Amino acid sequence: MSAERYNRQIILEGFGESNQKKLANASVLVIGAGGLGCPALLYLTASGIGRIGLIDGDVISLSNLHRQILFSTADIGKLKAETAARKLAELNPEISIKPYPFYISQTNILDTIKPYDFIVDGTDNFESKYLINDACALLNKPLVFAAVSGYEGQLAVFNVEDGNKNKTNYRDIFPIQPKKGEIPNCAENGIIGVLPGIIGTMQAAEIIKLITGIGKPMVNKLLNYNLLQQSFYEIDLIAAPDNAYKIPKDESSFLKTNFGYPKDDKHYRVLEIDIKELENLQKKDSTILIDVRETHEIPKLNSANYKQFPMSVFEDLLDQEIKENNIVLLCQHGVRSIAAAEYLHEKYGINKNIYSLKGGIIRWKNFFTS
């Protein structure tokens, strides 16, 4: 351990070499090398965490760069996990950094998080957040949670007891997982680039506090941050009644829990189409085009050509029988339409051809507004 590298924090009153050694002996897994994960990874690496794992199966795209600060334009198309690991190793070659270039799933998450002391949730969808939460609760792993959308962010520390022996997890705030596609993520809502940087850095700070024992971590508290007002407020968390939800008690029950994730590689994969294929399908007699956006979203589509069934009331459509053989789902960015397509596949199986417009209406805006 290089004393010079960490000199500025070693000389801090109340920190010293003893706490620096605690960092060097600790291990942290960051799930998601995106807007939250990038700043968290940078500061955890710079601080001297001895062993860091990062898991992400995605590749870098141009739309990532305004908030995912580990990457540059030259990295577009490369795997996030491997690219991030290489750059972090350049920042601090004294520590161990292991990339996991795949997505978390119900079948791999328990084995992946077991070797690590602390877990950081840098994901951006509810399926992952509930999956990570329940896995950490099952294995008793401290979890630093965060969520961001628009101009607001949240931060909390779960699975750690406070002085009153109170230990909370994500389900103590939101016991029931929303249905897939029911609540738009940042790809749909948008996000100001600096926001995940602020919250992700806070996640790194909470990890350092948990490891060293300095300060007061956000245990059993939910921090809410508003960027526009530069305002914070905290909510105290307490464990919900025993019958409010069920955390899986063992690996077998965990694998049986429905998180909205496929349990194996034989699952249905939504067939995404481009605008050319959409045009071809429109020419066929037995085709229906369904807009799953909410009624206030623009641009508006011609109701003579497109039926609207927002995701908020999509169950109404599932109760009806669709006569057409070809079903094309559309939304703003092609995220909710995939979820809608999966719901319809559960109902119709291979008896219908079900598609999602890749990139959504925004990507092909000229087609819909011309």
From TrEMBL:
Per UniProt, residues of the Rhodanese domain are 283-369
Q: Which PROSITE patterns match?
A: RHODANESE_3
Report the SMART domains cross-referenced here.
RHOD
Return the protein name: Molybdenum cofactor biosynthesis protein MoeB
Source organism: Pedobacter mendelii
